[in-house]
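Sequence in, structure out.
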Amino acid sequence: LALLLLSSALPCWQAPTDCEGTALVAQDVWTLARELDKVIQITHIPRHYGVELANAFFALERSGALEGAIQDCALGVAVLAVHALPHSEVRFGTAVAKEHFIFYDQLVRQYGHLWNASGFKWNLDSHQSASYPLLLGLKPQSCFGTGVKVFVYETEFAQKPIVCSQGMFASEVFVHRWFMHSECRTEDPSEADFFFVPVYAACVMTKEEKLADEMDRFYKKLVTENLTYFKDQGGQDHIFLWSSETYDFPSWQDYIQDAVFLSVEASPIECTDFDFFSEETAEKFGASCKHCPWCYTPWKDAIIPGYVEKWSIRKMRALEKPSKEIVLTAGVVGWKPEYQHATTVPIPTSSPSTRMPTLQSEMNFRLTGTDLIGV
């Protein structure tokens, strides 16, 4: 609340764009904020730089120097705040991270029109910031007139939505948060058509190093002890989401085979041994793991896309060419140890592709770490 009052109390006629530093805030802080704000327009920034921005923001907040910092460099403070959000959630919890986002949003609304007033063009985004309103419940969602009602459980492994909303497996977070903040949600189980079971399995397995055996125990206890309404319909109205190529509940066939699955794979991977894999043992993967086309049941399950953040979509669209201008397309379909060095792939002098003109002579394309080039 103090942050919100502070940001709203500063007069709009001030032009806090000098970013010269104050007695309590060195100019180097704004230099770092500017440089990283420029980099984020091109690529993701390394994690340790995000930590530096977060530490600077928390220091301003603790020291009472925030008001002076806003008067000196309001948009620099906004950059610190938005990059601090994942670290804010880790250190202080999601509720505090939400307060910090609202503070950032008010700064941008109040001073965003000055984004290029000092000769520097502020970006004022992070690669995740477009998703924060949905994740934090600040952007209510419709149910598209369907009238479907979904009861959303609370589970131990569905915490930290900001931290867990990064990467291709983040659909497990976004579907959960969408249900939580949509008109589809009901808190009355008697009127629910479906029961959604949120688990950020990919997140906890990668960030907290949970092993398959731990996940198996977690799911067994969840189904048998914590899903209060599971037995009413034999689990047929309960929804589980699998955001990676595997079902993260090894014993799923014994406990939830009749439940509804939202999956990013129509032919997921089933393993008889889950936890021995590493880069050194990757070649043994095929001995214990196979694709399982029968695991996905079309009459009850649904395929959903993996997650791609809006930041990446914007970057791809900016570089996208019309199909008629695309001469070659290349795809990485895997990696093998023997391909750790650059591989030369010959491209024939002619191609059946209508998009590829006849080449005057054989061309060699040097690819790093690829098995195949598709034209």
